[in-house]
Amino acid sequence: MQNLKYTFGPVPSRRLGYSLGVDIIPMKTCNLNCVYCELGRSTRETMTMKEYIPADVIVEEVRRVIATTSRIDYITFSGSGEPTLNTAMGEMIRRIKAMTDIPVAVLTNGTLLYLPEVREMLYDANLVVPSLDAVSQQAFKKVDRPHGRLNVDKIVDGIITFSEEYKGPVWLEILFVKGINDSPEEVQLLAQTVKKINAEVVQLNTIVRPPAESNALPLSEAELREIQQYFGARAEIVANFKAKAGSEKQEKHGNRIYDLIMRRPVTKDELIASLHLSAEIVEDNVTRMLTEGKIAAKQFTGELYYTSPRRKNRPVILPEGKGK
Q: What is the pTM of this model?
């Protein structure tokens, strides 16, 4: 399918099966600048809410993809920026649900849920997955590097209020970065706060793709297992999604492979599974793109990821020169 600008996949998701991603925000338009972000540093850090991409454009593209795709488990608002900055998201969700039975999920950093109008935009989604990486302002600034107008106490209150009002399931995600938000004190504060949030599942995560900052490091599985004990029965460690390669055999898939790599760092196995291509087709295309300098390859936690050559990694810059 050609001329797709705002959707990607379906990609195999660790949480949502085969997920059709929907981008409703320009690349890296966000109110956070997280040290672990797989898309690199935020280039448009903003609190401005507006209709960045019109609902008509998004809905029409989703309709075309649904009509030509055999398997989609979720239609997921996520992608290149914070989706709740787009004031048309509520309309998009309602219109998409009117034309398909595929459930709609929203992945959000949760920072704007203190606003009633933002909470209302999400009421018609089938699943909402907010993030909460820290509850002390100090750790919040270090791991998420927020816009100056954001306060973590207000964010926590917004997530709690949304979880009380929303009729669907809430899955809360916490992403831990070694030496920044994984201290026993911070974990204990998080666990106490999570008890106030009506989340069906608490998903504990760490860095699994090349991050925005080269010295933002992941926790080990053993460290996550230890943290899991703080959160009780609702907590789970997010595991890597495994999927078998499809059997589709075509030759001209370079554009699809390139588009997915530009969206986020991916491994060869993820390209095979996401695009239902043979290993040979993927190998031929990534080798050619590497030779031409269109993509780059980067080792991270023992995996080889293909990524944009423009995505650079730099040392973490902590607020006020503070470190752990």
A: 0.76
